Amino acid sequence: MKKPSSVTHTIAFYNIENLFDLENDPLTNDDDYLPTSAKRWTYKRYENKLRKIGTVIPKIGNDNNQEAPVIVGLAEVENEKVLSDLVNSENLADEKYSFVHYDSLDERGVDVALLYKSEHFKVTNSETFSVYLQTETGERDYTRDILLVQGELNGELLHIIVNHWSSRRAGQEETNFKRLAAARVVSSVIQNLKNEHDQPKIIVMGDFNDNPNDESLELIEKQGNLFNPFKTVWSKDEGSLNHDFEWNLFDQILFSTNFFDSSNSSLSFDEADVFNDRFLTQYHGKYKGQPFRTYVGKKYKGGYSDHFPVYIQLKTS
């Protein structure tokens, strides 16, 4: 009897650059994304953003993709409404994505979320973990929560941790402690998973606002006994975002080393990469090859995002 050929599942992460609705949320600082703001965030622009992101998500992966990604972590989504609008948008509706989302206390009101195809991935549990930060005056500094989603893919229980760590806006060194605090929360979550499960299969994804060789990523890799395939993906010519004409790889997917043990797993790691197809880039000018953004400052460009998506491929056995 012929053995069935293996299937490759794509698991992705994408910072989609400020997917906000048009409503003013009095509890958050979403004022930049209102029709009356300097950015003039209109319904037409919102619809264009949904259409654009909806074209990208099903394509993430390599040329041999058999289907759209089964799992997609997202950063910079405002609420459940924008996620519902996204998964039901014209270019994504046929993929029938479900999603997991919790509102966090982030001051801008942006959160992480997880899209998944329920025909493949069966969610069994989800919860969030806060990163406790303080300002210089001792007040609470609210940032994005860390999302844990657990579920079964190909008969294997996966533990997926989705992140969007604090930005470097006030300086890399000045904000390093914030990303280290997030890294310690992730390490704690991983340790708890190891205490509760035998050889848990763990995937840690996100926009870490740090590169693969930075202290925070080294911490979770070492303490969590994770493998980071993006250490070898990142180069002077390739990354997930570009700042001052230098490529950074803030968007990464790490995983527990038991994804290499095909003898004890129906899922094994195949490859990892940045999804930077030409349609996602600026075609002309001095920024050629960089992500085609929605905004540059307050200037509307009508593109996709200031980040490229990243992905890993898992082969079934």
Report on this model:
The chain has 317 residues and is an alpha+beta fold. It has a single domain (8-316), classed as 4-Layer Sandwich (Deoxyribonuclease I, Chain A), CATH 3.60.10.10. The chain contains four helices and 18 strands. The protein has helices at residues 43-56, 80-87, 172-196, 215-223; strands at residues 8-19, 71-77, 97-101, 111-117, 121-129, 133-134, 140-141, 146-153, 156-164, 201-207, 226-227, 241-243, 246-248, 251-256, 267-274, 295-296, 299-300, 310-316. A six-stranded mixed sheet has the order 3-4-2-1-18-15, with helices on one face. Strand 9 (156-164), helix 3 and strand 10 (201-207) form a beta-alpha-beta unit. Helix 3 packs parallel to helix 4. The protein is globular and about 55 Å long. It starts with 7 loop residues before the first strand and ends with a strand. The model has no long low-confidence stretch (mean pLDDT 95).
Could you give a short description of this structure?
This protein is an alpha+beta fold.
Topology at a glance:
Layout: E1 8-19, H1 43-56, E2 71-77, H2 80-87, E3 97-101, E4 111-117, E5 121-129, E6 133-134, E7 140-141, E8 146-153, E9 156-164, H3 172-196, E10 201-207, H4 215-223, E11 226-227, E12 241-243, E13 246-248, E14 251-256, E15 267-274, E16 295-296, E17 299-300, E18 310-316
Parallel strand pairs: 1-2, 9-10
Antiparallel strand pairs: 1-18, 2-4, 3-4, 5-8, 6-7, 8-9, 10-14, 11-14, 12-13, 15-18, 16-17
Helix pairs in contact: 3-4
